[in-house]
Structures are given as structure tokens and as C-alpha cells.
Amino acid sequence: MRLFIVLMAMLFFSKASIAEFDTKACKPILRSTENLLACKLGYSTEGREREVLMKNTYGIIRNLTCITHLNIPKNKVANALLSASEIPLPDHQIDCEIQTNGAQFKIGLTVAPWLQFGDEGVSEVRLNIGKVTGIPAFLGRRLVKYGNGPTLQKEVKEGLNQFIANFCQL
Question: How many helices (DSSP H) and strands (DSSP E) are in the chain?
Fold first, then answer.
């Protein structure tokens, strides 16, 4: 049953928007003169998203919460934004907790994002999901394949462009 739940969550609920991650924790760091953007970002389904998640997983999955610790040199991102160039970002661990009707379990993903910037913001994204923990290997391979595929990459690109637009309003 656990395998089914994880597969359903990943395949039917990939619309967790990067733009909606809790950026309040990062605002002071974004405004500071420090070169390193080092802060914790969190995401949890709320309201309508939770309803969609439960509907798409037939009521099995109740909530999805993810956390990552950003550790990105701001000057590299700024230079890439200004010069419409590419930037490989360091490996990041994303830890998620999935809550079901009666249980909770954790999965982890290692990502090494690569971004290409153009005149309108992010023009191309590769998540480069490499390692998945907390689920059986065959589901992990499926998640890596899906996560590195064009559908999710497009959603991430849109989310990052929204995040950048929100960042510019800080």
C-alpha cells in the first residue's frame, strides 16, 4: 500500500509551486550584502491544493510537506540573470513527509539543478534528480525519470520565473 501511495503522490501531484515556497525565511538573506543565500525553504499543501491532492489520490494522501536548505552563491545567480547565461547549482537535498489516513513517511531527493537564463528569466531547467531515498528502488527510478522529464521541467521553469518575479518585488 505504501508503494501505491508514493507513486500516486508523485504522479498526480507534481504541481507544488516553487513560487509558493515559504520565502519569508529567506527575505533577510536576500536583502543582505552576504554573497551566500543560505536559508531553509519549506512547502506544505494548503486549502485547495490539499483537496486536489486528496481527490487525485482517492483520499489516501492527506498532506505533502517538503523542506530544503538553500546554499547558493548570490553573485553566480545575479551574473547569470544579467548576462543571460547558464548556472549549475550545487546539490541540494529535498526532504518530504507524506501524510496518509493513518501514517506518515518520509522520502528524500537529491537534486543538482542547472538553469539557463534568457532575456525573459529562466529559459531552460534541468533538475538532475539523482538519488531518491525512502521508497523502493524501482519507484525511485520511476520518480527520477519523471522528475528529469520535460513535463516537470516545464512546471519548474514556470515556478522559478514566478519566484524571480516575486523576488524582484521584495
Answer: 6, 8
pLDDT, position 26: 64
Secondary structure (3-state) at 71: strand
Helix (H) or strand (E) holding 10: helix 2-12
Asked if 107 contacts 134 with a C-beta cutoff of 8 angstroms, the reply is yes
pLDDT at 3: 39
Residues 6 or more apart whose CB falls under 8 angstroms from that of 4 comprise 60
What does the pLDDT average to over 131-146? 85
Q: Which has more confidence, 16 or 45? A: 45
- Adjacent-strand bridge partners of 133: 108
| CB-based burial, 100-129: b 16+ in 10 Å, e otherwise | beeeeeebebebebebebeeebbeebbbbb
Closest to 64 (Cα-Cα) out of 95, 86, 103, 96 = 96
Residue 25 is which amino acid?
A: A
> DSSP letter at 82?
H
- What's the pTM value of the predicted model, to 2 decimals? 0.72
